Amino acid sequence: MSRADPSRVTVITGCSSGIGLACAVAFAQAGDQVIATVRDTDRAGPLREALRRANSTAQMATLDVCDDASVSGAVEQIMGEHGRVDVLVNNAGLGLGGTLEQVSIDEMRAVMEVNFFGVARVTKAVLPSMRRAGGGRVIAISSIAGAFGQPFNDGYCASKFALEGMFESLQPVAAASGVRLSLIEPGPVAGEFRERARGVEGRATVGPYAEQWKAFLSVTDAGYDGAETPADVADLVVRVAGEAEPKLRYQTTESTARLIAYKVADLDGTRVTKMTRRWLGRP
Q: How confident is the model at residue 50, as a pLDDT?
């Protein structure tokens, strides 16, 4: 599409699989000029095939959310070709399973680098142009883990809690320039992300946390029996991007909303602690 095309210019991170891939397809079907970014274009085959099946097109771009030069270079290229970014969808994410004793500081640093600093880095790069334009939408894929601490997810929850705090703090400042921020909070989502995040399994099947891990896994497996699909989440993201007055937070299912509401109403943490202890098979 030409630079003069009136449709939205939408940039999405982490499009090689999962929610990012689904968002790229959904926004392309909605008529957006989609720039689907991936860290490694050699892994973009599934995205290309999904776009082909949907009879849609998107521009591919290389962007590593953990690399300052990669982010600035990609945003400069997009601005040079399109003149603006109307919607940014921060989707790139990294899972980390394990309680604190079981994970290394380097692993925790890596998940923070992608899930928190990666979002900060890309958002920071597009904000100046949105501010000058007097508007824009910045959406981040958070998680129920950004509002509700879960056993064996210490590092992952920390990264999503940090993301939520940053967006809640930034929201009023960005809104003064017409830029609206939103967080999407899915519960269990089917796909590769869950499998990559289960690295704790080899560490937890033996040792002092083995029984707690087994009990917790039965709870999470039950949750994934009714998991929503990446396409379900993508449909909500497209809708949020088009809302005249977007909210800060959106839960993707009623069950996720109920669980987060339970947490928000529990000011001293007593009820949540009792619940999560039961997940571990403890009274």
A: 98
Q: How many C-beta atoms surround the C-beta of residue 190 within 10 A? A: 15
Which range marks the domain in which residue 104 is found?
9-201+227-267
Mean pLDDT by 10 residues, the chain (283 residues): 63 97 98 97 95 97 98 98 97 93 95 98 98 98 96 96 98 98 95 57 74 90 87 98 97 95 96 95 85
The total of other beta-carbon atoms located within 10 Å of residue 92's CB is 25
Q: Residue 138 gets which letter from DSSP?
A: E
Structure tokens at 68: 């300052």
As for how many domains the chain has, the answer is 1
What backbone torsions phi and psi does residue 185 show, to the nearest 5 degrees? -115, 85
> What local confidence, expressed as pLDDT, does residue 4 receive?
39
Residue 71 lies in a domain: yes
CA distance 282 to 272: 13
At residue 192, the pLDDT reads 59
Residue 254 sits in a domain whose CATH number is 3.40.50.720
Within a domain: residue 23? yes
The angle, 0 to 180 degrees and rounded to 10, between the axes of the packed helices 105-112 and 154-175 is 30
Residue whose token pair is 């849609």:
56
Q: Residues 174-184: pLDDT tens digits?
A: 999 999 999 99
Q: Is 250 a catalytic residue?
A: no
Nearest CA to 95 out of 83, 78, 112, 80 is that of 112
CA atoms of 233 and 19, how far apart (whole Å): 7
Whole-structure pTM value: 0.94
* Strands, sheet with 136-141, edge to edge from the N-terminal-most edge strand: 59-62, 33-38, 9-12, 87-90, 136-141, 179-185, 249-251
Which residue among the candidates 156, 224, 250, 262 is catalytic per the annotation?
156
Tell whether 279 is covered by a domain: no
Q: Give the contacts of 93 (CB within 8 A, at least 6 positions apart).
A: 14, 114, 115, 141, 193
